[in-house]
Amino acid sequence: MTTQGVFRRKPIEQIAEDKGDGLTRTLGLWQLTAIGIGGIIGAGIFSLAGAVANKTAGPAVLISFLIAGVASAAAAFSYAEFAGLIPKAGSAYTYGYAVLGEIVGWFIGWDLLLEYTAIVAVVAIGISGYFTELLSLLNLQLPQWMLGAPGTETGDVTAGTYKVNLFAVLLCLLIAYVLNMGMKNAARFETTLVYLKVAVVALVIVVGAFHIDTDNYNPFFPFGLSGALTGAATVFFAVFGYDAMSTAAEESKDSQRHMPKAIIYSLAVSMVLYVLACLVLTGMVNYKDVDAESAFATAFADVGLPALGIIISVGAILGITTVLFTFLMGAARVGYSMSRDGLLPQWFAKSHPVKRVPSRITWVLGIASAVIAGFLPIAEAAELTNIGILLAFVVVCIAVIVLRYKQPDLPRTFRTPGMPVVPIIGVIFSLWLITFLNPETWLRFGVWFLIGLIIYFAYSKRHSLMERQSRK
């Protein structure tokens, strides 16, 4: 164990004793699973599946999801092992700190703060689009100034007419408010929405199954196997979310037993729904005719069920809202853990005296996501996401291998199968996906990395609790 330098590691036993202001353990297995499903299932079903089927993979979008699911499972098993071993908030940040050193943990935590916050903003912008579309179906309209970020334009509207995406701003702030109600109440809100979302997806699958034309599956690989692989890289971002859910380990009633199960269950349930939805979508409509933006609503309109499109739009709004909850919760718990460790000002680690949630950091990140959602077009906001999460997957998969060989006798309630092959698959697939990211994403990551480097050496290294302990 190193006690000096940027690679000093925080002992797992010490992590287990961390209390800070304390969070309340209120979440059971099915609430954790619901939060995981809430983070995974969102735009993947309601829009991404259609876009990939139409432009990239055809009916083989099913294979794209399966490949992405297998790759995501490789990382999920690693997260599950750590979640059972280290039942504390922080997820990849905490795991990296414990195994690979403080500076590795810092950069993963620093990246996830940006990634998770940006995801909340991007999803809020997407929901705002669904909301606007739903209003148009109901022949209702809102003032143009509140329908988009500065510089966005629609149809004949002059660029610059829209000034703020007000609905997205309010949605981010609403989720921050819900998370500050206390985890028990917040989890009840999230679980209710997840049940409604799963019910809508099940309705889509069951009703759609009666309108499948098997001729639409031929050809199954219209873009070749390479199209399915490219599609896997795209839809991979629809098959994580359990990583953000794992940040709630400190609020689970029996984290060491429940958290690994919740990670695996949430991914398994989500993959089943994704596969069935893809089968229905590409069976109802020829892939060439799939609407890339509102796939299911259009598909049901094509088979004479336009009213179901309204139900799907409502389900999409409710369903994708759960993604906001999971990722804002994840961002707040990462920030809380970093603050408790002294790497960020400990003011952020103060929890609410009654609700026992990290209210300060939740509001800070909620407001940050609201600003991004309100004033950046969705394309620019989306470029802030993805790379940090993939790097977190790499770190966790490497860390689980290192710890298994360095400390094989630690009491693990879940053990990653196929060691070390399965974690290595997670590393390779994550690195492969990183190569698909555009140069602008790398540039923004580089700038954020540099800012983090400055903050670490100017503040975090000197204020780290590990540093203070080493001086004693």
Brief descriptors of the model:
472 residues, single chain, 19 helices, mainly alpha
What does this structure look like?
The chain has helices spanning 12-17, 29-40, 43-57, 61-85, 92-99, 102-137, 166-179, 183-209, 224-235, 242-245, 255-284, 295-302, 307-340, 359-375, 378-382, 387-406, 421-434, 439-463, 465-471. It has 472 residues and is mainly alpha-helical.
How many extended strands? Answer: 0
Count of alpha and pi helical runs = 19
Strand content: under 5%
Low-confidence stretches: 154-160
Rg estimate, integer Å: 22 Å
Q: Percentage of helical residues?
A: 55-70%
Oligomer category: single chain
Summarize the biggest pleated sheet: none
Distance between the termini: 17 Å
Shape: globular
The ordered string of helix (H) and strand (E) elements is HHHHHHHHHHHHHHHHHHH
Mean pLDDT: 86
Secondary-structure-derived class? mainly alpha
